[in-house]
Write a structure and sequence with these properties.
This protein is α+β, with helices and mostly antiparallel strands and about 375 residues long. It contains 8 helices and 21 strands. Strand 1 and strand 2 form a beta hairpin. About 15% of the residues are buried.
Length: about 375
């Protein structure tokens, strides 16, 4: 009897009553176990390393102790546009936000007091950020908790036309310090431009005019063409234009010029000037006197001032100002490399060959002055 009584006292003394709460659901557990782990084992509560148990598993329990178990849950979270799978022992959305250490004024897709166990959809969290907006030629900083470009535009009350352009896709996630430019593209007013049309000139042979003569018989007048352009404005400034129509408002009137074809009458040959009398006191010409008489002396006087041996280095030399190619081409090389090194008679002999081939036109200016053309 004594042993029975002592056993009953020992049984009553070692039996403990513990309050166990698992994810908010409470129950009383009678146990002889000495630690939290043993109490949970008796209550058939399985825990993992991700779960949170208070007090910890190795703690000795006493009669009337309380044990709380928070089972880890997997929650799908989109944070500033990026998807994450979070394991948490929090009970509400507020607990999850606190665990993620995001700003308290972040935009959250669910109410903060929502139980995580009752969530059907992923949680979207957008943290506060500042975006530089460039719109209608103005730039300003806008604080926002919007998650995407489209949400920011909606939040700011910005409506885009179909032709407007964004510097980032409307679905792009916002980031702190991001710059977003809205470019307004719209049609401008039609631009009408009048431009002159040049006239053409036509030459008509005229047998009544001498060769080389020209006469305007019909005066030309310019016309006018009218072009219409469509314009495109980018942020209020013209960026491009497209021709849509052009009309000749005034056609040009062509000019007609009569060109003479009548042969000029031959001019009578002028008599050769008499040679100057030789005199001991008469000064010699700079390059030696030319042969008496003929037009060559007068031509040399016009071309070189009568200096038959002049060579200024301009490509022409001698009394009749031969070019190097003309001098050598007409056989002058047999006398001297350049005309300035030959005698007046030799230069005239070469000039006669040139005149026989092309006339006085080899010396157009002076020949015209002397009436040789």
């Amino acid at each position: 009897m004594v042993a029975l009584i002592l056993g009953l006292v020992a049984f009553v003394g070692t039996n403990k009553s513990v309050s166990l709460t698992v994810d908010g659901q409470s129950s009383d557990v009678k146990t002889f176990g000495g630690t939290v782990a043993e109490v949970l084992q008796k209550a058939d509560v399985q825990v993992t390393a991700a779960d949170r148990v208070s007090p910890d598993l190795a703690t000795e329990v006493t009669d009337g102790a309380s044990i709380e178990v928070f089972k880890a849950k997997t929650v799908d979270v989109t944070l500033d546009g990026e998807g994450h799978t979070i394991s948490t022992t929090g009970q509400t959305v507020a607990d999850l936000v606190s665990e993620l250490r995001v700003a308290s004024n972040s935009a959250v897709s669910a109410s903060l007091d929502t139980e995580l166990t009752g969530l059907d959809d992923p949680i979207s969290i957008s943290t506060p950020k500042t975006v530089t907006m460039v719109l209608d030629g103005k730039s300003y900083n806008r604080p926002t908790t919007a998650g995407t470009v489209a949400e920011l535009l909606d939040e700011a009350g910005i409506t885009l036309a179909a032709t407007d352009r964004l510097s980032a896709p409307s679905t792009a996630a916002l980031a702190d310090g991001m710059a977003l430019k809205v470019t307004r593209v719209q049609p401008g007013e039609k631009d009408t431009v009048a431009e002159p049309v040049p006239y053409k000139t036509t030459e008509v042979p005229d047998p009544n005019l001498l060769e080389g003569e020209k006469k305007v018989t019909v005066k030309g007048t310019p016309g006018e063409i009218v072009r219409v352009f469509d314009t495109v404005l980018v942020d209020g400034r013209e960026a491009s234009r497209t021709l849509v129509s052009e009309t000749v408002a005034v056609p040009p009137a062509d000019e007609k010029i009569a060109v003479g074809t009548k042969k000029k009458p031959a001019k009578p040959a002028k008599p050769a000037p008499a040679p100057a009398p030789a005199s001991a006191s008469a000064p010699a010409s700079p390059g030696g006197a030319a042969p008496a008489g003929g037009n060559w002396a007068a031509l040399a006087q016009c071309e070189s001032g009568g200096d038959w041996h002049i060579n200024t280095g301009n490509g022409y030399s001698g009394g009749l100002q031969f070019s190097a190619s003309s001098w050598l081409g007409a056989g002058g090389g047999q006398y001297a490399p350049i005309a300035a090194g030959a005698t007046p008679a030799q230069q005239i002999a070469v000039a006669e060959k040139l005149r026989a081939n092309g006339g006085w036109g080899h010396w157009p200016s002076c020949a015209a002055k002397l009436g040789l053309l």
